[in-house]
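Blinded run. Sample ID left blank on purpose so nobody reads anything into the name before looking at the predicted structure. Input follows.
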Amino acid sequence: RRPASNPPASTGARRGRDSRPAGRRWARRPQPGAAAAGARYPGSVSGTSESEAYEAFCHGRWLLEAREYRQATLALERAKALEPDKGSIREALGRAYLSSRSYLRAVEEFSAAVELHPTDGYAHYGLARSLDRLGDPRAARHYKLARFFGTGLE
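Blinded prediction complete.
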């Protein structure tokens, strides 16, 4: 569907491949049974959308880059609550826990990331680092797997 009026040409709105006006948000329509179930969109968790999880994930990664590890864990925990089966969220949360020296929690998150994506070399590397900090001998196995799959750190 097209909006009732297009933005004026003087605003500098650009048109993309799908010829929608730039800057306009196109909301999905909720299905009839979704409001009764308390969900905003079908398939979402407790009235939230995938975009909210993505925004929390991006904010958490930004905080990681800014070296605000404790605050990053809060944002990434929120993203994990919204999308628990995303390996990228679990891996970023593991990085935040590892950097804030919460090694047991880092092991939990990196283990979940490895279960979700067994060939993710960085998840194996993070798991190995966390296990190594705890003195666990399983770290050597995950270091080898990280080297085999490649971490992207080379």
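Unblinding after everyone has recorded impressions. Helices lie at 34-37, 50-65, 69-82, 87-99, 103-116, 121-134, 139-149.
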